[in-house]
Amino acid sequence: MTTENGGSAHRSRLVWLVVAQTTSMVLLGLWVTHVAAGRGPLTLEGRVSQAFAELRSPVGNGLTSGLTLLAGTEGIVGVTLLCVAALLVLPSAPRWREAAFLGGSVAVQSAVFLVVTFFVERPRPDVPQLDGAPPTSSFPSGHVGASVALYGGLAALVLSRTRGPWRYLTAGVLLLVPPAVGLSRVYRGMHHPSDVLGGLLNGAATLLVLGCVFLSGRGAADGRTPQGTGTRTPKGTARGGPPGPARPAPLPLPDGRRRGGRVVVVRHPRGCPDGLADEVRDRLRRHGFTAQRWTSTTVDRPCGSLAEECAAGGVGLVVVCGGDGTVRVCADVVAGTGIPLALVPCGTGNLLARNLGLPSDPATALDEALAGGDFSIDVGRVRGDGLPPTRFTVMAGAGFDAAMVRDASEVLKAHLGWAAYALSAVRHLRDPRMRLSVRLDGGRRIRRRARMVVVGNVGALQAGLELLPRARPDSGRLEVVLFDPRGAVGWLAAAAHLASRVARRPGAAPAAGGPGGAVSVAAGSLEYFGATRIEVRFARAQDREVDGDTVGRGARLTVETEPGALRIRLPHAPGAVPAPSGAPGGTSHTAPTAHV
To answer: Distance between CA atoms of 481 and 458, rounded to whole angstroms?
Structure first.
């Protein structure tokens, strides 16, 4: 959960650095296998492999067998778990940053390795092989990459976190392991020399990326600050000491406006720890909201007692401290009632807050919203077989994205935030395509195959990645995307298209064309539609998700828009500033009238 200043920015940086690393490795692999093959130094690789095969001996076979076990999956996982446990248990205070750096390096290296082998298919050397060959590409060497991530990571920790004359010798020994593993892999006929070089580069890049995120910057020196679990100390209070200066007086209400009724604060206990809750309480008081009722979410009551509070009457504002899932269930209660909602984004994704232009820091987002006005935005309403009607504010979908959400590790989400979804996505790259039909506003059925279908009220994902470029929260319609990359070319085209949307300046929306106003881009990997009512049927039951929450498998989804059903308190109208990654159709669109 995002509970610290700058935590979201660090996770965004991590993911984009990993994406850049993965893309570079894929391009390098394609260059080795398609451009440089049979040219220059690579023509000598066959002779090198043959020479090593001719030099084999019982002693060499035994030594290289030991190195293979040391860098194999079981050996790497076992040593990594022992080292991470030691970092958390043995010191006087757990070294969370170091543990996250080491464990994350091994995991990220493995994820990048799997993605690269998906796109790059290179046969192993044409010599007798001493090990069983797994069904993966020869490029890059997974054994070498894993040994760099683990033993190179240990060397980095030894050099940066210990003192004494022996640290250089220890680090030197650890750094000898990866090249030794590389030689053993060539000796045993499992890899070409360029595969070993690719493994070294992949492991080194992973250490550089994870090191920049976990071992650099303020607070990294002692390595004792838990990631994602820090609490806030209210301003004016010295931690562990006497009270500091008095808190500032409550701010005057903007423009002399009178706000009636009490405020109900819905708090997700894990996303909003005690320190942040104290700060939210203080910010509300400073803006004149002294009558506060707090309720916490539970598994059985995901919006706490909000429904009962609203039914009792007298509620002037609802403040939601949580992520998109908590916002969704609260919006389902207050939509259509006229009660405004204010967001304190402290979840994993916080996509609604991002698309509405709120700051990533939870307390700052609340401060700016309370100084603004109330604006109406749309909500979506979705139902299906086994899925009772429910509202959503961000997106609903099925297929690849739902499986990714379902399998994302709760532990990784707590420490890495939404980067955990990226790691989960790797597991589903080879999932089969779905057969489905889409019906827009009662028109004829459009039959397609796709890996996922997403219906969105807003368009931007984390880090400004624009999945639905024409989606607007107050447009009165919903946007649909069918995602169907085919083969390595399709995946690369889709990734390049989406990446190009991140920094694109506002411009004209793509011209509509095809059935239902469809727009096809990235060599047909993405196809866009827009409507107020969307019916999707699947040939087989598929995983489904609504605003980042899995809602079970099913063969149908019917989604409709409820224009202007939700009032939300914002520092500015949703269309008064550019969208997170550039809004097609101009720098802004007509802003709705604020209700103040």
So the answer is: 12
